[in-house]
Amino acid sequence: MRALPSPRGPLAPAPLPLLLLCLLAAARPSWEDGHPSASPVTSLPVRVEMMAKYSNLPLESHNISLTEHSDVPVEKNITLQRPSNVELICQFTTSGDLNLVNVTWKKDDELLESNYMINITGSIMYTLYTVTIINSKQMGSYSCFFEEEKEQRGTFNFKVPELHGKNKPLITYVGDSTVLICKCQDCSPLNWTWYSSNGSVQVPLDVQMNDKYVINGTNANETRLKIMRISEEDQGSYWCHAVFQLGESEERLQLVVLSYLVPLKPFLGIIAEVVLLVAIILLCEMYTQKKKKQPDDGKEFKQMEQLKSDDSNGIENNATRHRKNESVSQ
Predict the structure, then answer these.
(1) What is the dihedral of CA 267, 270, 272, 277, to 10 degrees?
(2) What confidence tens digit (pLDDT) does each residue in 77-132 have?
(3) How far apart (Å, rounded) are the C-alpha atoms in residues 178 and 239?
(4) DSSP string spanning 269-302?
(5) How far apart are CA 116 and CA 128, in angstroms?
(6) Residue 2 exposure: Cα atoms within 13 Å on the Cβ side
């Protein structure tokens, strides 16, 4: 954790954040004569009261560094699952006159006019914003702005822990059982809930009235949904939902249910192709045989015609010879 510089040198990490704020408040009068904003000093009693009231909460400190040459806003994501005191520190380095730099803070699009301090050390300007986050309304994005020739922005994004399930669809078969797993890293949700999707509507799974589902988990940071006697109607999207002190988070899992005939489809397709190929071969063979028979039948027909013609000629010749013989005899 980095201590915020002050005119008395770096602060040790042991003292309370209140001491840091007091040092910054003491350093502020020497500089604010040349700076238009004096509202942070007037907010000090409010911060003292807040820090005293929630002094038992854990303290977190986060910082962002910016320069006059930064081309894009700098962002930092912060995961928070329980109420905490938070210090947000923005550091801005420039070669210009820091007394001409205007500093502002915003929560989302709302301008914050208190709870921040400003200090200059050499060519570096520091601004510190303190906030006690105790509910979901205080979550969101907190941004510091340094306006010189162009505006530089640093943003702290607060969010509750993300949930993680299986990225790819879970595939199972009709009649089987399966388990959907959802978890988060280093977290302890207050409550886990499972939903199934009915179109665009999420329907909570009532495990008390339905022996088809069993919900449990081996650790506080995970939940398991066991689905028994799976049918094709169980296919679809399932959502695991976690409730934290500072908000809620959910994750979508996809279940695909297959019939046992599905794995056989490729083999049935191969068998169909083989049968079709054999049928084509047999048809080709029959066509070839038929084509061969046609010339042979023509030859047999011609031979029969020739024999008939020969027989007819033979009879005619015999008849002619017989008539000739009769004429000679007469």
Answers:
(1) -160
(2) 999 999 999 999 999 999 888 989 999 999 999 999 877 899 999 899 999 999 99
(3) 15
(4) HHHHHHHHHHHHHHHHHHHHHHHHHHHHHHHHHH
(5) 5
(6) 12
Integer-rounded Cα Rg, in Å, for the chain is: 46
Q: Round the average pLDDT of the chain to a whole number and report it.
A: 78
User: What residue spans of the chain are helical by DSSP H?
Assistant: 17-27, 29-32, 39-42, 44-53, 265-329
8 Å CB contact between 65 and 91:
yes
Mean pLDDT is lowest, of 35-44, 137-146, 235-244, 274-283, for 35-44
Residue 146 CB neighbours (<10 A):
25
**Which of 210 and 165 is assigned the larger pLDDT?**
165
Tokens representing 327?
């004429």
Residues whose CB falls within 8 Å of the CB of residue 4, separated by 6 or more in sequence, listed in order: 11, 20, 24, 89, 119, 126, 128
Share of the chain above pLDDT 70, in %: 71
> How many of the other CB atoms lie within 10 Å of CB of 75?
13
- Amino acid at site 89: I
pLDDT at site 2: 40
Helix (H, G, I), strand (E, B) or coil at 255: strand
CB-based burial of residue 269 (10 Å sphere; 0-12 exposed, 13-18 middle, 19+ buried)?
A: exposed
pTM for the full predicted model = 0.64
DSSP string, 37-97: --HHHHTHHHHHHHHHHTTTS-EEEEEEEEETT--S-EEEEEE--S-EEEEEEEEEE-SS-
Nearest to 46 by CA among 103, 113, 114, 112: 114
CB pairs under 8 A, 24+ apart, for 136-141? 136/246, 136/247, 136/248, 138/246, 139/80, 139/246, 139/247, 140/107, 140/108, 141/107, 141/108
Termini Cα distance of the chain? 154
Q: What's the token pair of residue 115?
A: 């709870």
Alpha-carbon distances, residue 221 vs 91, 146, 184, 188 (angstroms)? 36, 40, 6, 5
